[in-house]
Amino acid sequence: MAKPFLKWAGGKRQLLPTIQQHLPPQLATGEIQHYIEPFVGGGALLWAIAPQFPHLQRGILDLNPELIVAYTTLQRDVEALIADLETLQGHYFSLTPGQQPQYYYQIRAQFNQQRAGFDFHTYNPPWIQRTAMLIFLNRTCFNGLFRVNSKGEFNVPVGRYKNPKICDRLNLTEVSQVLQSTRIESGDFSQIEAGIKPNSFVYFDPPYRPLNITASFNAYASQGFDEQDQIRLKELCDRLHHQGILFMVSNSDPHNTNPDDHFFDDLYGDYRIIRIPATRMINSKARKRGPISELLIMNYGDRP
Ligand SMILES: C[S@@+](CC[C@H](N)C(=O)[O-])C[C@H]1O[C@@H](n2cnc3c(N)ncnc32)[C@H](O)[C@@H]1O
């Protein structure tokens, strides 16, 4: 089974078993023919359901152009990508642990310099090199995160890994296989509405509404996603619902920090909302980590 090739903020790997339990039964019966994931990020659910429901036509989208460059490269040129990544990996491992950080910062600088003037719209050979650098940085940076500053520069410091798996050939090949029958689009989530087929299931995993100020790290790729966007997403869900399209939305549960905050219970009052256990950082202080709940919202199944 393919798995995420990037570590991504908000990745859903931990919650996968619970999310899978709540998928619509029409996936298994074959009634649903299309799977759409408009905030794809690292795509945890995408990879998990691909072997389970191989008949599905898939469509993914994200606002972050770096992700779209990477997904498209994996779809089109996985062998060339693996070759580039093996070169980066070979160089990294030829260095002493004392020299490796310097190499990391060199690749990071190259990645940032390339950004200005980079053609993020039309697939071309530099996309392969850029994807190799993105995966290399993601595997060797601190915490394996993608974070950019206000100028759009990737600014994560080097991580401390003894033996990072930089080029996972087998997984990249499997990822590429899944992407062969996956449509990849760049842009705002609302774009999925045009041309969506009635027998579709859409999984929305938007940037979470922050639980409090200190946990407000939801400015993915410097794209803030505010309450107006959460409302815009719900309005899209309403329109999909009226077309008979099935959807699932995940989000943070405001009750973790404020039992009187009914933002999502009110917003999605017409739909089925369940609270599932998750472990995630509420507060930057480690002692505040612990079991919390997250929301799954669906327009199918029995309401509790
Ligand atoms: C919570 S992450 C998704 C995590 C993903 N499910 C995973 O398992 O890795 C949210 C994603 O939404 C993207 N995003 C933010 N604003 C968006 C928008 N308006 N339209 C589409 N994608 C957006 C971000 O770039 C990010 O990749």
Strand proportion:
5-15%
CATH 2nd-level architecture of the largest domain: 3-Layer(aba) Sandwich
CATH homologous superfamily descriptor of the largest domain: Vaccinia Virus protein VP39
How far apart, in Å, are the first and last alpha carbons? 33 Å
Cα gyration radius (Å):
20 Å
Q: Can you characterise this structure?
A:
- The protein is α/β, with parallel strands linked by helices.
- The protein is 37% helix and 15% strand.
- The protein has helices at 16-21, 26-29, 44-52, 65-76, 78-94, 100-115, 126-140, 169-180, 227-242, 263-267, and strands at residues 34-37, 57-62, 182-186, 200-204, 246-252, 272-280, 290-298.
- A 7-stranded mixed β-sheet has the order 3-2-1-4-5-7-6, sandwiched between helices.
- Helix 9 links the parallel strand 4 and strand 5 (246-252).
- Helix 4 packs across helix 7 (126-140), helix 5 (78-94) packs across helix 7 and helix 6 packs across helix 7 (126-140).
- Mean pLDDT is 91; it is low at 218-222.
- The structure holds S-adenosylmethionine.
- S-adenosylmethionine binds at residues 8, 10-12, 38-39, 41-44, 62-64, 188-189, 205-207, 220-221, 223, 225.
